[in-house]
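Design a sequence for this backbone.
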């Protein structure tokens, strides 16, 4: 993990909210357009992915949002997703990896924990 990351900034907090599908994540999308993407300021971990997937399993987030969410994490320059690249690829490419179901999300979480 990058020791230069300041986790007290609004930028970091908004990315953390988005990455984990935390309450209020829908409000973050418009603010993301104002943040620079020239350097990584958030490193996504297995814990983050599990937190997000847990929101789906608990019915807090619609399963249909996963593909868009995974694509967004992959394309943002301010998010380092290298530790979870394979998982995000699987979630963002259902045409290659098969339709996403709650059972598959549970299995994926079991592998990540």
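Sequence:
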């Amino acid at each position: 993990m990058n020791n230069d990351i300041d986790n007290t900034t609004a930028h970091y907090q908004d990315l953390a909210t988005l990455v984990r599908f935390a309450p209020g994540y829908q409000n973050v999308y418009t603010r993301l357009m104002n943040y620079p993407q020239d350097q990584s300021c958030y490193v996504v971990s297995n814990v983050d992915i599990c937190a997000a997937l847990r929101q789906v399993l608990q019915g807090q987030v619609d399963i249909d949002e996963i593909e868009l969410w995974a694509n967004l994490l992959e394309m943002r320059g301010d998010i380092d997703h290298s530790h979870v690249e394979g998982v995000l690829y699987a979630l963002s490419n259902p045409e290659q990896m098969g339709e996403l179901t709650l059972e598959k999300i549970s299995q994926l979480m079991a592998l990540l924990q």
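The radius of gyration is 14 Å.
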